[in-house]
């Protein structure tokens, strides 16, 4: 990579980092290219040249963010850890993500932006789903979860828990809540039976 290309990439990453910081507190509909340019210390023309529009910049920023999150999950989940540790990590990462970005924004963009929805679907189908299936199979092989439950049933169960966890306000997340959710996840309301 030559010096010009490297500087261009560094500038693009700085602009996307600025957008991520703004998205923590602002709705993208209220952001302007001028606001982003000022905070990123670049000209508005630079942003238009690199990204074409504010919508494309926001979309690309969020997709890059999601890819980085998946890469962190992949690295952790490929380590030799128990299924319980992996589930706990996923819950803690959710808390971290909720502190970094407005999840409602991602849900809204999935509904409103066909290109963003397609990118999220591809990321899910090609990286996230295979990772979760591998995690389930490994846990079944180790005897950590019932081997007679189908992958489809376990995926449904995990998705139900994901949907419920998205409704929990970030202010309620604590070590105790996460531990109790893990107990419910593995043993239900009756408690540990082993």
TrEMBL record:
Residues 9-69 form the HTH tetR-type domain. Pfam families: TetR_N (PF00440). The keyword DNA-binding applies. The keyword NADP does not apply. SUPFAM superfamilies: Homeodomain-like (SSF46689). This is TetR family transcriptional regulator. PROSITE patterns: HTH_TETR_2. Gene3D superfamilies: Tetracycline Repressor, domain 2 (1.10.357.10). Residues 32-51 bind DNA. Keywords: DNA-binding. It comes from the Bacteria. It comes from Geobacillus uzenensis.
């Amino acid at each position: 990579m030559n010096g010009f290309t490297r500087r261009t990439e560094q500038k693009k990453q700085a602009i996307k980092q600025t957008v991520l910081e703004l998205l923590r507190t602002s709705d993208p509909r209220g952001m302007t290219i001028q606001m982003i340019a000022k905070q990123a210390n670049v000209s508005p023309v630079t942003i238009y040249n690199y990204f074409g529009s504010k919508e494309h910049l926001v979309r690309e920023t969020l997709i890059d963010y999601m890819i980085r999150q998946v890469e962190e999950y992949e690295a952790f989940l490929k380590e030799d850890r128990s299924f319980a540790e992996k589930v706990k990590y996923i819950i803690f990462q959710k808390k971290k993500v909720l502190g970094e970005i407005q999840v409602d924004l991602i849900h809204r963009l999935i509904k409103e932006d066909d290109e963003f929805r397609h990118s999220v679907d591809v990321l899910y189908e090609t990286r996230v789903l295979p990772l979760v299936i591998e995690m389930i199979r490994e846990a079944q092989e180790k005897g950590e979860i019932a081997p007679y439950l189908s992958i489809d049933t376990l995926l449904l169960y995990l998705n139900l828990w994901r949907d419920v966890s998205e409704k929990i306000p970030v202010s309620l997340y604590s070590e105790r809540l996460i531990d109790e959710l893990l107990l419910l996840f593995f043993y239900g309301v009756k408690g540990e039976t082993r």
